[in-house]
Write a structure and sequence with these properties.
- This protein is 74% helix and 0% strand.
- The protein contains nine helices and no strands.
Length: 195
């Protein structure tokens, strides 16, 4: 029988440190996927997830359960990501490892039978790469909404709780993010045709 998150949180609050280990083990892959989708950098995603779990450890004792643990986790990861962006903006650096990353592929590639031709597979990969590059160019507020809604498949309500935004703001920001993404993809398509 699997113990739910709420029970694990209560156990931790009563002094059971192993309950936190179980909670982290249960959610670390999800946390990493979300952080990676925001950063597109494996090392930075690891750093953000580590910082998020440190923050959770420090404040889980006062967690009241007004929202699901995962909603709270998304919010903390988003805050860690935004803090990292602010810090890096104040002291810009260039990583040699990042300069060598090609941007190909996803961190979670799903292996499935493919009945597409090699040309169709190539085109799908190209589309995925262009989409990933376009999402990375979006402003952080748009990228966060797109990733939460389309990649993490959170509902509007879960996004409002995660980002502490009104429902109308989430809907309008998602719409503007989609429009901006469409424009970026259209610009990429036009540059490819012109080349």
């Amino acid at each position: 029988m699997t113990v739910d998150d709420g029970t694990l949180i209560l156990r931790f609050q009563k002094g059971d440190k192993l309950a936190l280990d179980t909670l982290i083990a249960r959610h670390e892959a999800l946390a990493y996927q979300y952080a990676y989708r925001l950063t597109r950098d494996p090392d930075q995603a690891c750093d953000i997830v580590s910082e998020a779990f440190v923050r959770i450890y420090k404040s889980l004792g006062s967690f009241r359960g007004n929202s699901a643990f995962t909603t709270w986790l998304y919010r903390i990861i988003t805050n860690c990501f935004l803090d990292t962006r602010r810090q890096s903006a104040s002291r810009p650096t260039v990583s040699l490892e990042n300069a060598l990353l090609t941007g190909e592929g996803e961190i979670n590639s799903h292996i499935m039978a493919s009945f597409l031709s090699p040309q169709a597979e190539f085109e799908r990969g190209e589309l995925r790469t262009r989409l990933s590059q376009a999402i990375a160019k979006l402003p952080v507020s748009y990228r966060t909404i797109i990733v939460l809604f389309h990649a993490e498949m959170l509902s509007y309500k879960e996004i409002t709780l995660s980002l502490h935004l009104p429902l109308g703001t989430v809907k309008s920001r998602l719409n503007r993010a989609r429009l901006a993404l469409r424009d970026l993809l259209e610009d990429q398509r036009e540059s490819l045709l012109a080349a």
